[in-house]
Amino acid sequence: MNKGTLRSYLKLFIEEITFDYLSTSMGSFMKAENKLEGASNFKACKARIDLILAKNDLLVIVKGKVTEPLDTKGKMKYEKDDITTMRIIVDSTKDDLTPYVSSLES
User: Fold this and answer.
1) Is 36 helix (H, G, I), strand (E, B) or coil?
2) Nearest to 92 by CA among 59, 57, 47
3) I need a labelling partner for 28 at 20 to 30 A (CA). Which of 17, 50, 77, 88 fits?
4) How far is the C-alpha of 61 from the C-alpha of 67, rounded, in Å?
5) In angstroms, rounded to a whole number, what is the distance separating the alpha carbons of residues 51 and 89?
6) CA 22-105-53 angle, 5° bins
7) Closest to 29 measured CA to CA, from 89, 77, 75
């Protein structure tokens, strides 16, 4: 597979993920068959979650590259982004893993 073809596939994949994320404001962010089940699909699921977070400018929160602002407006945006990030992560796991993931900080 050449680089152009790979880029085309990645672009379509990212667009599909973005569509899934944006089209479901209160629904699921990831298809059930792609959700984290455990160690067997961890790497693939992590890659999908990272792409969703990166596309929505939220990956920096998970990577710890953003510090909580001191001003009120910045703090409100930070908290909203943190909640959205956690929602994407929790919604990307199977229900039986949710209690373990939801208790972690994003």
Assistant:
1) strand
2) 47
3) 77
4) 8
5) 12
6) 25
7) 89
What are residue 36's phi and psi, to 5 degrees?
-65, 125
**Residue whose entry in the numeric block shows the structure tokens 């953003």:** 66
The CA angle 22-67-59, to the nearest 5 degrees, is: 30
Average pLDDT over residues 23-32: 56
The owner of tokens 């992560």 is 89
pLDDT at residue 26 in the model: 41
Rounded to 5 degrees, what are φ and ψ at 31? Answer: -60, 145
Q: Are 25 and 91 in contact (CB under 8 A)?
A: no
pLDDT over 50 (residue 102): yes
